[in-house]
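Shipment paperwork, digital attachment
Item: protein structure file
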Amino acid sequence: MPTLEPEQLTIREMREDEASIVLELLKDGFKDTENRLILYVLTRPLALLLMAVGSSGLRFFLNSFVVALVVPVLLTVVALKLLLWRSPDLRQLYAYYNAGRRGLWVAVYDEDDICGCVALEPRDGEPHTAELKRLAVNRWYRRSGVGRRLIRFLEAQARAQGFKCLVAQVSVVTKAAIGLFESSGYSVSSGRQWLGYTVQQVFSKDL
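Attachment content:
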């Protein structure tokens, strides 16, 4: 964990030519979360049961026990990866967050090192609520206060735009992120389930 000089850290809007850098930063965070979430899902009892049933069915058509065992697991992994990457904002990062009341900001250290990012998006059908999205911090800068600074900054931006509440969707396997939101005054308001198991928690905070 590096020791940062607070005055050297600034937060500003992402420029168009920085979109590729920010996307790589997000992808790096996705890989960690994605792999842990897939492992979490695959080891749930009901998921194991369904894969076992699928494997048993395949053994009637395949001569190889190993192939029949591996195919259901691979299909499940592929399906989960496709589901996790369905976000429309990632295809056109700058254009998406440069429209309407959306916004994406980057944390920059020592004037030119992009070390984190965070985005704001209004919630459909909830005029006074916005979503805190795309919170990511470069591996080298984690646990140095960058994430907390980004959250505080986004809260100020949301207040300035007239929002009364912020929500954030957090994977259950990202323990550090859960701790960060809890210590920043957020509480769990709902969750997203898969096969009866919570895979994502929705944190909220009144501004």
